[in-house]
Amino acid sequence: MNLTDKLDYLISRLLSENTDYKNIAVPDSGEERFRLFQSLVNVRAPKPVSEDFLEVQDELLREMIAEKGVVNYKDLTPIKPRIYLWQGDITRLKCGAVVNAANSGMLGCFCPCHGCIDNAIHTFAGVRLRLECAEIMAKQGYEEPVGRAKITAAYNLPCEKIIHTVGPFVGGRLTDEHCEQLRSCYRECLKIALQSGVSSVAFCCISTGEFHFPNEKAAELAVETVSEFLRENQNIEVIFNVFKADDYAIYRRLLEENRAPEIRA
Fold first, then answer.
1. CA nearest 229: which of 201, 257, 252?
2. Residue 71: CA atoms inside 13 Å, Cβ hemisphere, count?
3. Per-residue DSSP letter, 178
4. 8 A C-beta contact, residue 82 and residue 230
5. CA distance 220 to 243
6. Does pLDDT of 251 surpass 70?
7. Residues 71, 236: Cα–Cα separation, whole Å
8. Is residue 14 a contact partner of residue 40, using CB atoms and an 8 Å limit?
9. Is the pLDDT of residue 223 over 90?
10. Which of 97, 74, 86, 96 is CA-nearest to residue 255?
């Protein structure tokens, strides 16, 4: 099957799961077809699916990621010992683990085609990720606290694992509690990475999107916390992954100014 055939097959299977979808028409263009597929996946409840579906889904997503271009962090030049800075789509990054900025439900973004990193990671990892997250949360029995982290398989992403963390939501004035919660996100992600044998972690800009943490302060806390951790732990590397040019400029300045404690190579 070519890409169009795979999309048509997956869309047909997803539409057949819900009688409310019976009047949905499949678009003609490939881009709109994928948006429909993504929307159906985004709103889909965590539940098993057939091996045939998974085989086609996995082929499709891996082809699309390969077309976007996989980036191996080892091909990047570190900006400081064991610290890298890269601007781009985190679903393209080959490393030990990427960090997902999750919500307290930890099941991914249910808003169709939303622009958040949670949506992108769940979309390109595939439907098994939401099911694994649901199983973890059912076993836990309560929502994930802010500043904590969980680790899962990465499925179709080029990284080995995904670390999900819930950052603080800043609805008004930034407080010391918000700052400590954000620091905790970075520490807990690095701790769970080491415990799981992961030797490299790519951090997104946790809480700076939908959760409204100020970008400059978030970057300061991220660089300081990560550098402190690396000074005490020699067996891990970190990639600061940013999507926006403004965030890239902030991180580059902070790292080049040596505002964080020096670490050994």
1. 201
2. 18
3. H
4. yes
5. 17
6. yes
7. 19
8. yes
9. yes
10. 86
Query: Could you tell me the two tokens for 260?
Result: 């964080």
Which residue type occupies 4?
T
Torsion angle in degrees (nearest 10) through CA of 78, 80, 84, 86: -90
Alpha helix segments (H runs only) across the chain = 3-15, 30-43, 51-68, 117-125, 127-140, 176-195, 215-232, 245-256
Condensed to tens digits (0 to 9), the pLDDT of residues 174-195 reads 999 999 999 999 999 999 999 9
CB distance 196 to 162 below 8 Å: no
Share of the chain above pLDDT 90, in %: 93
Phi (first) and psi of residue 174, to 5 degrees:
-70, 130
Contact assessment for residue 165 and residue 149, using Cβ atoms and an 8 Å cutoff: yes
Q: What is the rounded CA–CA span in Å between residue 116 and residue 109?
A: 8
Segment 99-118, tens digit of pLDDT: 999 999 999 999 999 999 99
Q: How far apart are CA 79 and CA 240, in angstroms?
A: 10
Q: Which residues contact 152 (CB under 8 A, 6 or more apart)?
A: 129, 132, 133, 136, 161, 162, 164
